[in-house]
Amino acid sequence: MTADDVSGSGDPYEDDPLERLERNERQGSLAIRYVFGSLLAIVLLAFGIVATVDVTGPECPDTGALCFTATRVEVVLLPTLLGVGLSLFSAWRTYRTWTQHIRWRPWLFATYAMWIITTGYLLVSSSAVFAQVGVQ
């Protein structure tokens, strides 16, 4: 006879409060690491696109610092799509932890932070690209 047969709940963490506490406390550090890792992934993708366009693109006639990004929608679009995908994954993770009765608030913070990061990247990158397009 197992503990699940006696309690009838099927939750293996219900009988061990220490294991449940450790599982709940891990959610905060996991969510914070997810936010910083996602931010790093978005920034690295943007720098990778800019570096690739700079190396493989045509020679820039102007001497402006952002000259090679002026006509590149990829600099705005691809990292923004990555941010949206990471935000949606964070929202899904929030829902999954909520349904499992685990501490879900850190993942809600991660979802909010990912939407803020994605929106901020969209505003900064699109204004840099479109301001440079307006100069030419």
Structural class: mainly alpha
Low-confidence stretches: none
- The share of residues in helices is over 70%
- Encode the helix/strand succession as letters: HHHH
Annotation field: number of helices: 4
The coarse overall form would be elongated
**Cα-based radius of gyration, to the nearest Å:** 22 Å
Main pleated-sheet profile: none
State mean pLDDT (0 to 100 scale).
Answer: 80
Q: What's the number of extended β-strand segments? A: 0
The span between the termini is: 77 Å
- Beta-strand percent range: under 5%
Can you walk through the features of this model?
The structure is a single chain. The chain has 136 residues and is mainly α. The chain contains four helices and no strands. It is elongated and about 70 Å long.
Summarize the helices and strands and which ones pair or pack.
Blueprint: H1 3-7, H2 17-56, H3 74-99, H4 105-135
Question: What is this entry, summarized?
Answer:
With 136 residues, the chain is mostly helical. The chain is built from four helices and no strands.
What structural keywords apply?
136 residues
